[in-house]
Amino acid sequence: MGSCAALRALAVLVWVAAAYPVVFRARPVQAGLAVNWGTRALHPLPGDITVRLLRDNGFDKVKLFEADPPALRALGHSGIQVMIGLPNDLLAGVAGSVNAAEQWVLQNVSTYVSRYGVDVRYVAVGNEPFLKSYKGKFESATLPAVQNVQAALVKAGLARQVRVTVPLNADVYESLDGKPSSGDFRPDISGLMVSLVRFLLDNGGILAINIYPFLSLDADPNFPVDYAFFPSPGAPPSQASVQDGNVLYTNVFDANYDTLIASLEKHGLGSIPVVVGEIGWPTDGSKYANAASAHKFNQGLFDRIVAGKGTPRRPQMPDVYVFALLDEDNKSVDPGNFERHWGIFNYDGSPKYRLSLAGGRPIVPAKGVRYLSKQWCVLRPDASPADPAVAGAVQYACEYSDCTSLGAGSSCGGLDARGNVSYAFNQFFQAANQQRAACSFNNLSTIVTTDPSQGTCRFEIMIDTGRHELTGKSAAAAVMVGSSGSWSAMLVLGLVWLAVAAW
Q1: Which listed residue, of 22, 213, 214, 335, carries a Cα 20 to 30 Å from 479's Cα?
Q2: What are the residue boundaries of the X8 domain, all occurrences included (predicted)?
Q3: Which residue in 66, 102, 128, 339 is the catalytic one?
C-alpha cells in the first residue's frame, strides 16, 4: 500500500455497520474509475505508456503517493485527474513552516499545473498518519501540515481547483459492540479526528479511507472468507452477515465504510465527502493472495463501481481508488511478500486476469512496451543445487532483486531446488538489465535463450528502459538509477555491481 506500515494494521476493524440510512448534505463525489499508480519499480513502465494504459481502460482519476516527476509530466494534458501525495516524512517540516508548505506546493503542484497542464485535484497530506503502529509519531504534525498546505494552495491561487485530504487507515474508528451504528473514532485520537475533519469540511476538503478486506483475512485465521468478498448476484448471503437494525450487511466493505460514516455523523460531521483511497487484492506472496481471489474481489468491486452502487448509509458509490495499477518490485516486504503484487496489471502492463468493465468490456494491456532480450540466467546444467556456494549466491540474488514469488503458496512456490536457484539468479540478472556480469555466480550460472518458466511460475524479462546498451559498472548504476527514480534504487544499483563483482 502507500506505506509499509499500512499493511501491519488490520484494515477492517468491524464487520458490521449502521442500521438506518440517513440523509447527508455532502456534495456528491462523482463516481469513476480511479486507481493508485505506485512507482516503486526497478524497471517502471514508461510514463507515456502508463498514461495510455490508464486511458485505454477508462481510468480518469489517479493517485500518486509522491510527486513523481516522470509520472506527473506524462499526466500533463491527459484528461486524467490527479491526487498527489505529500509523504509522511515531510509532515513535520511542512507543519512547522508555512514557507516550507508554500515551496512544496510551488514545486510539486503549481509547476505541474502551469508548465505541464496536469489536472491536479487533490493533495493527500500524509498517508495513514494515525496508524496505531506509528505510536503517535505523526499525530501532532498532521493537522498543522494540512492547515499550512491549505494556506499555500490559497496563496498560489489553486484552492478552488485543488482540495486537501488525508488518507486514513480503517483503524481510526471502531465499534465496541460490533455494530457500526455504534461506531466512533478511536478514543486516543477522537479529538484530533474531529478537529481534522472539521477543518477539511470547512475548507472544501474531503476524507479518504483505505479499506482492505484482504488484510483482515490474511491476519485472522478465523475471519469468514466469504464475507471478505462481494456476494455474487443471487447468491445466498454469507453466514457471517450481520443484521444491524433493518439492514443486513453481507460484505465487509459495506460494513466498514458505513462504520466510518456512523462515526462521522456522531460528531456532526456527516456532510464530509468520503472517498475510498485504497482497496484491492494482491495476487502473490500469501495463502489468499492469488489471481483467482484477486479476480473475484476486484470484479465484484468494479461491478459496484460501474453500477454506482454505494452502501446503505451512502447509496451513491464514491470515487474508489483501486490498489493498485501495477506491481512494484522495489517496495519493502516488511509487511509481507504480497506487498509487491497488488497490481491488476503485471509490471509490464499485461492483465493478470480478465476484468470486465462497463458493458462487459475487458481490460486491455499496455501498448508499445519494449523488453530486454529473450534471455534468462539459470543454474548451470552441470551444477548441483546442493553445491555449498549456491545458498550464498541465492541469498545475495534475492537481497537485491524480487524473489517474493518463491514463497510457500505463491506462484513459484512449487519449483524444485534447481528451479528455485534458477529463478533467483534470473531475477538478479534481469534487475541488472541483463549485464553479463550479473550472471556470474561463481561459475554456477549460465545464460539461456529458452524460456525456463514452469506452470504458474513466470521467469520474467524486464522492460527495456532504453539505456541497457551501456556496459560495465556505469551501466549497472546508470540504467537502474534512470529507471527507478528513487534513492533506494540508486543504492541497490551500486550494490548490484558489488554483488556481481564479488561472485
Answers
A1: 335
A2: 375-459
A3: 128
Closest of 128, 146, 91, 171 to residue 1, by C-alpha: 128
- Quick one: average pLDDT of 441-461? 96
Q: Is residue 91 helix, strand or coil?
A: helix
Strands 184-185 and 173-174: antiparallel
DSSP per-residue string spanning 210-260: E--HHHHHHH-TTS-GGGGSPPPTTPPPPTT-EEETTEEE-SHHHHHHHHH
On whether the pTM is more than 0.85, the answer is: yes
The Cβ-side half-sphere exposure at 413, using a 13 Å CA radius, reads: 13
Q: Could you tell me which residues come within 8 angstroms of residue 414 by beta carbon, excluding any fewer than 6 positions away?
A: 454, 455, 456, 457
Contact predicate 281/293, CB 8 Å: yes
Where does the pLDDT of residue 273 fall: very low under 50, low under 70, confident under 90, or very high at 90 and above?
very high
Grid cell 502507500 — which residue? 2
Q: Enter the C-alpha cell of residue 406.
A: 518463491
DSSP 309: B
Q: Nearest to residue 67, comparing CAs of 106, 98, 35, 99?
A: 106
For residue 146, the Cα-to-chain-centroid distance in whole angstroms is: 22
Q: Which helix (H) or strand (E) holds 378?
A: strand 376-379
Angle between helices 98-105 and 139-155 (to 10 degrees): 60
3-state secondary structure of 400: coil
The number of residues in the chain equals 503
Catalytic hit among 278, 328, 339, 460:
278
Report the amino acid identity of residue 48.
D
Helix (H, G, I), strand (E, B) or coil at 421: helix
- Residue type at position 490: M
pLDDT in tens, 140-187: 999 999 999 999 999 999 999 999 999 999 999 999 888 889 999 999
Does the active-site annotation cover 328? Answer: no
What residues are paired with 242 via a beta bridge? Answer: 249
**H-type helices in 270-349, by residue range?**
291-307
Beta strands at 445-448 and 207-210: parallel, antiparallel or unpaired:
unpaired
CA distance 304 to 311: 10
Q: Is 66 a catalytic residue?
A: no
Query: Of 400, 482, 401, 468, nearest to 436 (Cα)?
Result: 468
CA distance 111 to 227: 45
Amino acid at 35: V
CA quadruple 116, 119, 121, 122: dihedral sign: negative
